[in-house]
Amino acid sequence: MDKINFRTNELYPGTASSQATTSRATTRYQNHTTALTVNYNKTFGDHDFGLLLGTEQYYWQVKGFSATRTGLLDMSLPDFTAATDQQIPTVGGTAKQEYGVISYFGRLNYAYKNRYLFEANFRRDGSSRFGPDHRWGTFPSFSAAWRINEEAFMENTRDIISNLKLRASWGQLGNTTSGYYEWQATYGGVNYSFGGDVYDGLRIGKIANPYLHWEASESTNIGLDLGLLNNRFTIEADWYQRTTKGILASPSIYLTIGNVSAPTTNTSNMRNRGIELSLRWTDKIKDFEYSISANFAYNHNEVVKYKGKLEQGWTTDENGNRVYVTNRGDVADYGNTIVVEDHIYNEHYLFERHKGNGNIYLADGVTPDPNGGPRDGMIRTKQDLDWVRAMLNYRDASGNRVYDFNNQSIGQGNGLWYGEMIYADVNGDGMYGTNDDDRVFTGKSTTPKYTYGLSISAAWKGIDFSMTWAGNAGMYRYIYERGFNQMSSSGWQEGTIVARDARNIFYYCDPVLSATDPNYDPATDPNANIDAPYMRIGNENGAHRANTSELYNASYIKLKNLQIGYTLPKTWTQRFYVSNLRVFASFENLLTITNFPGVDPEMSGSGFTSYPIPRMISGGVNITF
Ligand SMILES: [Ca+2]
Questions:
Q1: pLDDT digits over 340-365, tens only?
Q2: How much distance in Å is there from the Cα of 350 to the middle of ligand 1?
Q3: β partners of residue 294
Q4: What is the Å distance from ligand 1's center to 426 Cα?
């Protein structure tokens, strides 16, 4: 087809039909499920028995084929068989992949006098995704419950306690999170030289692990159900612990093994512990029905087994020098978050602001004070900058530099200057935020520690009302965009590059005088803003470090849904052969209560740059004939 550029009025001839290509592709998915279950239930006096036995097989396969040919007689005949060109067609497709699962399972129920309830489950699952000798996993689970209110000694309390049940369970379940062929090695083509010529060869891309087996999650649960006043008030409380064992991961491997990917292994264990509580009150007063329910949950996750324990600290090497050593690179996956044993999963792992005492020198008046410098890390005054200068100029007895600030030198717009940050020397080696040894565990992640909700609903003479509040707390999001500006232009003049308002929150001092007058002190310049919460605006100079002051509490509570409706009396609507007619208005995400500075604490990513969950207002009519 020809194309025209309307701006220049030029015509671009399209592809000639003899050069046009046509293709056909087929992808075939196939799956079969076979299931067979037998059920048996029997009651002997006070004893109730139930038995279920079953087996299930599942097979899945994909394969695809595609081909392209060139040369059409005419654009109106795009069928694959109509292509005329005698060139060999290009052929491709989807590689054939398949997997299968076979399961055998059984369940046994037993109840005595409807008071003592037991259940045992047994599963044996086999999956083609694991090594030939480790395909099968056995997963039992048991649960028991005691309906205390059915006991004779509870007889007199039944007016108040309508239900009281104690529950306990323990069980294991298998997860197939592995890819279809994860236990096998992968090979790739590679050229090698032999006798001065290049030959095609084959090399291992990824090491096999024939021991790859099921990931199993083991859960323990203890719960209590309580119903009061004919179940008008109910409480459900649960404590749980769930440990996922054998989570698949690829360990760090030594370079001596060569340039290959590590095998996938069942290395890591993760534990979730928590409590869940839900309360509900429901009642009716004449025509007025209402119910209030609230829920609360606390969860703590911890990586209990990964690549080994983190060990780091000061030691003395063979030459008698004090050195800081860490095995962090071997046992952890980290950047601004970290996965390592004994810590929450993806814990924020950040630098901290330096907290100085404001001094420049120690008592001798010549040696810089390593604990001196700006009190909140930001170089705000001449005194602060003089400390940085004294630290960088200081040399030890052998003439070596002792202190370092993330490899930065002093300089406006491109180094340590007014409005820039000093990061804490956490490990005490004199290098302030220079390397990862100064990162700190924050005990915080984007996973909420607490979740809660509240629902209220009411109905009166055809009018109905409901609302749902939900929220999370104890989660933190890292967003640098708010307090650290990466503008491309260097320097900043008030009112020229950014709005005047920015002056109130970003550090500002005279860019010319501060660079030219050695006696200039922002602390005595009435036009400077030295108490700003955020660093100066300017181009990124490399001194910035992801730090804890850019970590924000994303706790929130939201009015997720509010609905008001009115159902017309049936005596009216039935005249029009309508059995039910309800008009309603519904509001989603109407209100968010949070201190989080981003757009929406609930959304993924930093919560600052991605698209938020929308607010929706809708109305409608439900008619049932
Ligand atoms: Ca350090």
A1: 999 999 999 999 999 999 999 999 98
A2: 13
A3: 279, 454
A4: 6
Q: Which of 426, 443, 417, 430 is nearest to 351 (CA)?
A: 426
Amino acid at 57: Q
Q: Give me ligand 1 centre to Cα 428, in Å.
A: 5
- Identify the pLDDT of residue 488: 41
Residue 328 host element (H or E):
helix 328-331
Q: Is 295 exposed, middle or buried (0-12, 13-18, 19+ CB in 10 A)?
A: middle
Structure tokens, 551: 């970590």
Q: Could you read off the pLDDT of 387-432 as tens digits, one per residue?
A: 999 999 999 999 999 999 999 989 887 788 888 899 999 999 999 9
For residue 405, report the distance from its CA to the centre of ligand 1, in Å. 9
Residue matched to tokens 């009435």: 526
- Cα distance between residue 179 and residue 199, in whole Å: 32
Main-chain dihedrals φ then ψ at residue 328, nearest 5 degrees: -55, -40
In this prediction the pTM is 0.77
User: Where is 515: in which H helix or E strand?
Assistant: helix 513-516
Which of the pair, 215 or 517, is modelled with greater confidence?
A: 517
CA distance 613 to 604: 10
Provide the token pair at 443.
Answer: 């005990």
Give the distance (Å) from ligand 1 centre to CA of residue 436.
Answer: 8
Rounded Cα gap, residues 448 and 346, in angstroms: 12
Beta bridge partners of 22: 69
In angstroms, the CA 384 to CA 357 distance is: 10
Distance CA 389, CA 406 (A): 14
> Cβ(616)–Cβ(588) under 8 Å?
yes
Residue 87 has pLDDT above 80, yes or no: no
Tell me the CA–centroid distance for residue 324 and ligand 1, in Å: 9
Indicate if the pLDDT at residue 377 is higher than 50.
yes
pLDDT at 608: 56
Q: What is the pLDDT of residue 250?
A: 67
Tell me the CA–centroid distance for residue 327 and ligand 1, in Å.
Answer: 16
**Backbone φ and ψ of 134, nearest 5°:** -130, 30
Q: How far, in Å, from the CA of 404 to the mean position of ligand 1?
A: 9
